[in-house]
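Check the record.
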Amino acid sequence: MPPILEELRARAMALGFEKFGVVPVGSLGRAPFYREWLGHTYHGEMGYLARDPERRLDPGRILPGARSVVCVAKNYFTPSETNEDPRTGRISRYAWGDDYHEVLLRRLEELKGLLESRGARAKICVDTSAVLEKPWAEAAGIGWQGKHTNLLTRDLGSWIFLGEILTDAEISSNPPRARDYCGSCTRCIDICPTRAIVAPYVLDSRRCISYLTIELRGPIPRELRPLMGNLIFGCDLCQDVCPWNKFAKVAPEAAFLPRAGNVTPSLVELLELTPDEFRLRYRGSPILRAKYGGFLRNVCVALGNSGDSSAIPALARALEHPEPLVRGHAAWALGRLGAKSHLEERRAGEADPFVRAEIEEALR
């Protein structure tokens, strides 16, 4: 099916994808690494990563008869000043605008339609299917996985979203072998405050601030909270210092432009959000993935790290929040800010064991 390759490439470029590649289905050579990574439980509470790992290694388990993986990349870089104000929260750049899943899906549907018009079967994957996206993109010649484990390109850096289409079409392709251009640089490893990059190219998700603020559903480990600064959804630190990101170009996609209040949001204002206000403010945004209680948990930690005594009244009100997850982290934050009188007042009336333990620890 040789003609379809260039037709797909041209359509992908016309749809606004900056990178395109196709790779035949076969062994990625990642199976030993992936199994070892799971064996260390570096996936944390992301149980879906350990569920039937062979399915993630074989696209044919997702689309029976799959022969090719079509890979695309979309730039999402938007420049901004570094947010150094501890009274405001920091949100990962990828979540400043609209949910990238929807943006990519709409375009990938057109590429899928092109394949189906040729009689092929196809399935779209955008971060939600059991596909090892970065290794496939690397195999397709789009870039290489850096020491921070993000996919890197020489002309766009790492500020890219990935998408794939699995198809039973046999698409002739000879993608260039990805070369690792990280060299001896260790800036991403050195900058990580929680030491989540335990070795070059190896991430312990359980220590990663992105995992802690998005994927983790329960309490954030106490020893990691002081290291999180004002990061409330995701973390870009390892990307911010990557030398290859100096080549980043401003994304032309309007959907990825920052929404009002997403770059330097007031932490106190966020802590006062009701569930309805949270859903309305972040409708169509990746931030909803953290869920209401998890997001306010993150805000409490950031306020505890802020050193801002003016946040004490809001945190004291959060001690009455209906969700124990929020109350417990508010107690920790009040302890950090030295507001122990509020904790003493709450101590006797608190019934939840987790929150009580947080209050007792904060009062020590």
Remarks:
- The CA atoms of residues 197 and 242 lie 14 Å apart.
